[in-house]
């Protein structure tokens, strides 16, 4: 029995006990009244220790290193020489991509206005840095995004009427705008590789939750991200119906997508999103909530709600990723500068805490394909609100998947 099946069963049994309530009142919070621990989870590794040389608190047996810093050329581990790529300002959303030689690529967005884009670091099978390079430029405020099953990075512009760009993660500067994913204040995107659909969040106080269905999927399993149907979620009694947008790519003086469907359900500042075995997990920063959407029965509910949780240690919810064994890792924008884990049975506990960088936020958490490394950034680095262009990207070594 997989961890995700256990989680889904627990979610359904919890909701069966309490019943679905509409979003107009309150949705069931699975984490609020339960403290069931999965002792196979990361929690069994123990509490956070004292800050290490990087100022990072980790469980026993974990270690950290700095792999990139804004304005500095990334250094190769293989020969100690500097690459040509200077790490970008305000590193944000990221993901890991396995490569044929056993290595992987970590991508990272640059959330800066009018001069955004994305960069990448290439690792060999031993986890050594081999190269670093740009994969997107000339865009604006690239916040989060998402990985595709066919191995590309979707980088999202967090600006009004912003777009999504598909990037080749191994070739410098090879990217294309994907018009099918709409024009709005994009935050993140997750692909459902079973039903071949994409789900997207919107960083607005009255934002929507979106679903994209491509017009076609090629023989290699690649979705057409230019031609398809973009819909918004309408929740009723804990279940979602999907309503097509009138105009998914509005111009500057046309009605924004979030205002086109009168009864579209509103989410308070949509942030990170991730897919895992039939479940979509996403966060909303305005109300400090972590949501789940079951693609099988189209039900919607709460995995975590700070206002009602018995362990409200997670705040400033932002980027999210899910381990292969079903642990939801949520990065904090501010808060306590933590990456917090929500285990398969609803247990909530910190995995990483960055000290003395209170003016920053944690971004881009991603687990390497071998499950032994976690990457993330402190977006503005040093603890100085007047010098916020010193983003730092870290690698944590440990065990992140069983």
TrEMBL record:
InterPro entries: PhoX, TAT_signal, WD40, WD40/YVTN_repeat-like_dom_sf. SUPFAM superfamilies: Calcium-dependent phosphotriesterase. It comes from the Bacteria. Transmembrane segments: none annotated. PANTHER family: DUF839 DOMAIN-CONTAINING PROTEIN, SLR8030 PROTEIN. This is Secreted phosphatase, PhoX family. It comes from Pseudobacteriovorax antillogorgiicola.
